[in-house]
Specification:
The protein folds into 2 domains: 59 residues, no CATH class; 127 residues, Tetratricopeptide repeat domain (Serine Threonine Protein Phosphatase 5, Tetratricopeptide repeat, Alpha Horseshoe), CATH 1.25.40. 69% of the residues lie in helices and 2% in strands. Helix 8 packs antiparallel against helix 9, helix 9 packs antiparallel against helix 10 and helix 10 runs antiparallel to helix 11. The longest helix is centred in the N-terminal third of the chain and has 48 residues.
């Protein structure tokens, strides 16, 4: 049968098939020789450009993850280096002067105090490192974003209570500083001062009612009954249909204050 097929006359279909096989096999051979790919070596050798793109994408994702981690490490290292440099420069200045020639600090705020019989650590140490306003604001933002409210309050309040320091804060910064001071449970009086400044300068702010709420919470924690009573009355009269009143009304019921 095969002999018959080989001996029979060629048709146009036979010629077309042989021509197609010749072109296909010839092209495949040229491709294999050019790119050094052989069918038994698999997909990666057949389509090297696609495989390279997939591998490159995976490597980019790994690099992005490593970069995010290294960025955080870099910020922490830079913070420590700046502290060391500031400490060194402060030591050099002190070595050239007597203690009597050093002017007393003009700051009205001191992070050091007791809270629930516990000594609060001074994370700023402004007298030693002499942070400028830009650095104090930077580290305030850093600790706020990390929800480290005690540290954020110390850096922010150190700047706020410097002469003209409040001018360094934008509207949202001032609100966040007041919240951090109260949320940190230590600097409640300072938080009240900051938020009082805030509502005075930004009476139309979107956070105005929220600031009033935080002020009332600070008054409650400090035991300022008269001020807390006034805040309750104001919320009951003006802001009773707000979420803030829902929060404050729970304290109202616990406080035993009559309105």
């Amino acid at each position: 049968m095969y002999r018959f097929l080989l001996l029979r006359p060629f048709t146009l279909g036979d010629l077309a098939m042989r021509y197609f096989l010749f072109i296909f096999l010839g092209t495949a051979s040229v491709y294999c020789v050019t790119f050094r790919w052989y069918p038994w070596k698999g997909w990666n050798y057949a389509f090297p450009s696609i495989s390279a793109q997939i591998q490159l994408k995976q490597e980019n994702e790994i690099l992005k993850t490593k970069l995010a981690h290294m960025t955080g490490v870099y910020e922490d290292l830079r913070f420590e280096m700046e502290k060391m440099q500031s400490k060194g420069s402060a030591g050099e200045e002190m070595s050239g002067r007597s203690l009597a020639s050093i002017a007393p600090s003009s700051l009205k705020f001191s992070p050091k105090r007791k809270h629930n019989s516990t000594d609060i650590a001074d994370f700023v140490q402004q007298d030693t490192y002499q942070w400028n306003s830009e650095k104090l604001l930077t580290y305030f933002h850093k600790h706020w974003n990390l929800k480290q409210y005690l540290e954020a309050a110390q850096f922010g309040l150190t700047l706020f209570f410097q002469p003209g320091g409040a001018k360094n804060f934008k509207e949202i910064d001032l609100f966040q500083l007041g919240v951090a001071s109260i949320e940190g449970q230590v600097y409640l009086d300072e938080g009240l001062q900051v938020l009082t400044n805030y509502i005075t300068h930004y009476p139309k702010s979107r956070y105005y009612i929220r600031a009033k709420l935080w002020m009332a919470l600070a008054q409650y924690k400090l035991g300022h009954v008269s001020e807390f009573h006034t805040s309750l009355q104001e919320f009951k009269d003006k802001y009773r249909n707000t979420q803030e009143w829902d929060i404050l009304s729970n304290l109202y019921q616990k406080s035993g204050v009559s309105l």
